[in-house]
Amino acid sequence: MDHIETADYLVRMLDHDNKDELREVQKLRYDYLLRDFDENKNDSDGLDDDGYDAFSESLIAVEKKTGRIVGTYRVATDETLRGGVFKCEEEFDISSLRKDPGGIVEAGRAVIHRDYRGGVVFSLLWRGVITYARDLGLRYVIGTCSLHGTDPDVFVNCTSYLNQYHLSDRFAVRAAHDAFEYGTMQGLSAAEAGLPGLLKAYLKIGAKVSHNGFIDYDFNCCDVMIILDRENMNERFLRRFAG
């Protein structure tokens, strides 16, 4: 994809041949993603390297004034994976989605530096993800959204709201193991649901969710699968959100 540029930020593809740039991204993910979910995490190298960077590409948001990478999304396709599986397939059975000829981009490892979480960086990165999928002619963007902690009862309002209003009616994606079922409370408003900001943004863009969730004990979270159909997305909201 071509770059996306504003007065303050540049969104472009990571140069994986630039080892310093890749290290900066892995450091950002470690500091502001992994440690956000586990503040006691203390790996000696302070990097998030799960092996998938070799089979993925990454979008990065660079602050033009400082040259600092302040946000990133990792993206993968069947082509980049070279016969491998998507990261989310470690948690969810997406066989029904794989049968659709539309094609898939997995967007994951989303992280924004804590000082830049006002919404602009996320929206620019998400526009980059959509542009990436569009350029490749791939219809679906998938990923996971994590809720802090491993007790699903804490999120019963949130998951009840998802269960009532936002289940994917096209794909019955379910957790492959370590599953939890959504709540069944009826009539909750979005405010009562207590949706995390990132999940709320995905839903406003038009994303649907899996039919249950996955408990990630290693990452200390409960994951919900996100499925966005580019043919049914709210592009007006995306443009407005991007400012």
Condensed summary:
With 243 residues, the chain is an alpha+beta fold. The chain has 8 helices and 12 strands. It has a single domain (4-242), classed as Aminopeptidase (3-Layer(aba) Sandwich).
Give the tags.
alpha+beta; ten-stranded mixed beta sheet; 8 helices; Aminopeptidase; 12 strands; two-stranded antiparallel ribbon; 243 residues
Question: Topology, pairings included?
Answer:
Blueprint: E1 4-5, E2 9-13, H1 19-37, E3 57-63, E4 69-76, H2 78-81, E5 92-93, H3 95-98, E6 104-112, H4 120-136, E7 140-148, H5 156-165, E8 174-175, E9 179-180, H6 190-193, H7 197-205, E10 208-209, E11 213-216, E12 221-229, H8 235-242
Parallel strand pairs: 6-7
Antiparallel strand pairs: 1-2, 2-3, 3-4, 4-6, 5-8, 7-12, 9-11, 10-12, 11-12
Helix pairs in contact: 4-8
